[in-house]
Each structure stands twice: as C-alpha cells, then as structure tokens.
Design a protein that fits this description.
By secondary structure, this protein is of the alpha+beta class. The chain has one domain: Pnp Oxidase, Chain A (Roll), CATH 2.30.110. Helix content is about 15%, strand content about 35%. The protein contains 3 helices and 11 strands. Strands 1, 2, 5, 6, 7, 8 and 9 form a 7-stranded antiparallel sheet that branches. The protein has a two-stranded antiparallel ribbon with strand order 3-4. A two-stranded antiparallel ribbon has the order 10-11. A hairpin with a 2-residue loop joins strand 3 and strand 4. The N and C termini lie far apart (about 60 Å).
C-alpha cells in the first residue's frame, strides 16, 4: 500500500484517544467515616490511573514432540493510581482508616466480616475515558469489582523540594474488571457478561 497521510488521518478518528482525558472514582466501605467525602474528592485528585490489561493464560500439552496450546485461566493484575495530596489529607486519611480496619496497625485485628456484602471490606472502583468534547463524550468505562487497598506509598519530604505538590501512589487488588457491565464481541457487539447471574440452590 502506498504511503497516504490522508488515509491514515481518516482512520484516526477525532485525533485519537488522549490519556489525559479520564476520571477515576475511588469508593470506600460504609464503615470508613470520611469515605463519602474522599470519594467525591477522588474524581479531582487521582491524577494517574490506568485502563486494565486483559490477560488469559495458556497451558501447553505435549504430544509426540509437539506442544498443543489450550486456554488457561484468566488473571488480573493489581491497579495502581497516583493521588494528589491536599492539606486536608482527605483521601490519604480515608485510605489509612480503610487499611487499619482491615488489619489494625497495633492489634492486627480485622473489623470486617468478609468481602463485598454489608460490613465487607471491598468496593467497586471505576475509571472513565472521555473524548475531546469533554465529559459528555464518554468513550469507555471500566469497573474494578471487589477492590481493596494493599499499599499506600510514602510521601517524600524535603526542604529542597519547594515548587511542587505532594502526590503518592496506592495499589489496589480486585477480583475482576467489567466494561460498564458489557463486553463486546465480534458475533454479539453488546453481550451482557456475568451480570444478574442466579445460582440455583
């Protein structure tokens, strides 16, 4: 195919998706006292996030000197976000309280009964990618189901660091991610997956 910049430009709709046009919303269990305010602040204070990778493993089965590759298990990596620190420490305080309730700093006692049910320690986090037209043009959204923090990073302090604003990272584990409740496929562009599943007792 001959080089043609106009053809490439026609394929790059609206100039391509931009990594800076996103919004991340963190959520907290109901037991965290400042969780509601921290969730509202997170939409402005999370300055770096990520769209999740999709990874399915494979299993190699030997047969007469050859390797047959079959589908393995799906795996989910951790989610790391970078958060701007304001002088109220609203998000950091809420994260520290959440983790302290999961495993006490001095007691190692958990105040939670289990996972996502009432009184549980997990929540659902969400990230949205926007187009250049702004928040009204939501291109894609992901939800991280059964999420909980496992590491809040240190905040370096220095007398020599004058013209900057503090930020830190937080690493979350989660059970799986969903594409706004829908996963498109070639045969069925909008197929609901793993939603409203009823297990017979």
């Amino acid at each position: 195919m001959a080089f043609n910049l106009d053809q490439f430009r026609s394929r790059l709709a609206d100039g391509g998706a931009r990594p800076s046009l996103f919004e991340m919303e963190l959520r907290w269990p109901q037991t965290v006292t400042s969780g509601v305010d921290a969730a509202k602040a997170s939409r402005f204070m999370v300055k770096m996030a990520e769209l999740p990778p999709s990874t399915v493993g494979h299993i190699e089965v030997g047969y007469f000197g050859r390797k047959l590759k079959v589908i393995g298990d799906r795996s989910f990596t951790s989610l790391t976000v970078t958060i701007i620190n304001d002088e109220d420490f609203i998000i950091r305080r809420a994260l520290e309280e959440w983790m302290d309730r999961m495993s006490g700093v001095s007691s190692a006692v958990s105040q939670y009964r289990g996972g996502s049910a009432d009184g549980g320690y997990t929540t659902t986090l969400s990230v949205a990618q926007f187009g250049r037209q702004g928040p009204s043009n939501r291109l894609r959204g992901y939800e991280f189901v059964g999420a909980f923090p496992i590491a809040v990073a240190a905040v370096p302090l220095s007398w020599d660091d004058a013209d900057s604003i503090e930020s830190y990272t937080c690493e979350f584990q989660y059970q799986w991610w969903e594409v706004a409740g829908e996963i498109p496929t070639r045969d069925a562009p909008l197929v609901n997956v793993d939603t409203n599943v009823t297990v017979a007792g």
